[in-house]
Automatic annotation (TrEMBL):
Residues 78-262 form the IclR-ED domain. One of its GO terms (molecular function) is DNA-binding transcription factor activity. PROSITE patterns: HTH_ICLR (PS51077), ICLR_ED (PS51078). This is IclR family transcriptional regulator. Residues 17-77 form the HTH iclR-type domain.
């Protein structure tokens, strides 16, 4: 279960609207594990008083973002408007989708695009070819950056000081027997990604899952996103990922990057 987001320790004085931050915490308390909650559960999840949680939930209900049967609360489809505001303000992802669909059809594997948000990769485009994980992925899904191909690609594009700060904050979980958990191993792997210009993750996040990612680079030469191709090792091993899929992925990433450099954002 994902812990509710906490407000930053250093609040920027009077410009910090605490009630708004608490409202976002309430929204984030709903998840696949807890899609329906009581008032008490929301309060416990967010650290709010029952009275404070009630005021926020009723406000969200009035605005149409929450539905209640009198005891239980759940988010409504209107909450998607908040995420769509980001996607609609970034036309590059709509332009990238046809290129990614063509890539997925060519290699017969799933293709995704993502951006870095703290310690996570957030999926902003997803083209399905096969069900490859025990958890369904879609737009808005989050995965740990240090153990995903897009994540390592994006981390490799950061200044070293920022990378080291994120590494220091990152909790270590041995998702599989292949997961790298030591600082030296992770830094070595990211340095290799930085040098070669692509990232391959072989069963570090989930047994049987393999993926390769390439960077999306803006006009300033910054890595602002990544796209990947994912598959199963019993169908596509690491050697085939590099020899058959990687050239097509790199070509598509270059095409998307060109759109990124020429499209007004």
């Amino acid at each position: 279960m994902q812990a509710p987001a906490q407000p930053p320790e250093n609040k920027p004085g009077d410009s910090y609207v605490q009630s708004f931050a608490r409202g976002l915490e309430v929204i984030r308390s709903f998840s696949a594990e807890q899609p329906v909650q009581t008032l008490s559960e929301v309060a416990a999840q967010t650290g709010l008083t029952r009275a404070g949680a009630r005021r926020i939930l009723l406000t969200l209900q009035t605005l149409g973002y929450v539905h209640s049967d009198g005891k239980h609360f759940r988010l409504t489809a209107r909450i998607l408007d908040l995420g769509y505001a980001y996607l609609s303000s970034q036309p590059i992802w709509n332009l990238a989708s046809p290129l990614m669909e063509a890539l997925s059809e060519k290699v017969q594997e799933s293709c995704s695009a993502g951006v870095l948000d703290g310690l996570d990769v957030v999926y902003v485009v997803r083209v399905h070819a096969h069900k490859i994980m025990s958890t369904n992925l879609g737009v808005g899904s989050r995965l740990p950056a240090f153990w995903t191909s897009m994540g390592r690609m994006l981390l490799a594009g950061l200044p070293q000081a920022q990378l080291l700060q994120l590494l220091a904050e990152c909790p270590r979980v041995a998702y599989t027997r292949h997961t790298l958990v030591e600082d030296a191993d992770l830094l070595r792997a990211i340095a290799q990604v930085r040098e070669q210009g692509w990232a391959l993750i072989n069963q570090e996040l989930e047994e049987g899952l393999i993926s390769v990612a390439a960077p999306l680079i803006n006009a300033q030469g910054q890595t602002v996103g990544a796209i990947n191709v994912s598959g199963q090792v019993n169908r596509t091993n690491a050697q085939e990922m590099e020899s058959r899929i990687l050239p097509h992925l790199l070509s598509t990433a270059q095409s998307v990057s060109q759109l990124l450099r020429t499209t007004r954002q």
